[in-house]
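Researcher: Good morning. I'm working through a list of sequences from a screen, and I'd like to move beyond sequence-only analysis. For each chain I'm collecting a predicted structure so we can compare shapes side by side. This is the next one on the list. No need for commentary yet; just the structure.
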Amino acid sequence: MFSNNGTAHFFDAAGKELKSFNIGNGGVQWGGGDVTERGHVIVPQWQNNKVVEYDKDGKVVWEANYQWPNTCQRLANGNTLVASHGDQAVYEFDANGNERWKHPCAGRPFAAHRR
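Model: Good morning. Structure tokens for this chain:
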């Protein structure tokens, strides 16, 4: 769970909190982040104009700059899908932060997810 105060919380099946760490409160509450297959947390920080990935212990392992990201999702191919409120577009970026795909939007996208 991502809280509005900028914390990632992990719970067991009974609802007991196992771990929590700070992820910054720069925007996760607006659109949402993702938990990767490796158990890492990837979150948009719109106030900081970036997307940040944390390992299971809360250490930053990857980040990339995007203008006002609202939501992000790690895709099966390892790329990252980002909806940008500021750019009015949805992007797919590779692990190096290179743009692989872009879809301009008529308005400001709040969230985007690939099935």
